[in-house]
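To the structural biology subgroup,

Please find below the input and predicted structure for DUF465 domain-containing protein, which we are adding to the shared reference set this quarter. The sequence is reproduced verbatim from the submission form. If anyone notices a discrepancy with their own records, reply to this email rather than editing the shared folder directly, so we keep one authoritative version.
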Amino acid sequence: MQTEHQDLKKEFPQLAARMDALQQSNTHFAEIFDEFNALTAEIEHIERNDAATGDSALEGMKKRRLALKDELYRMASA
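Predicted structure (tokenized):
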């Protein structure tokens, strides 16, 4: 399965500098940013390698990633 890498700084280039600053100054932001990237890597690995995982487990991971993305966007654009 072909999957597109999700990179928040490329997706929201207008917020890239703000995200960099928040990663340095806001522990909560840095933690959820790291969680988003780790989850993205895991999802991409599963999709790229058709790794054995239940559809509901993968769906849950994608929902969590979307929730993290929403929170990161909200914090960066505040």
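Summary notes: The CA atoms of residues 9 and 16 lie 5 Å apart. The helical segments are 8-11, 16-25, 27-49, 55-77.

Regards,
Lab coordination
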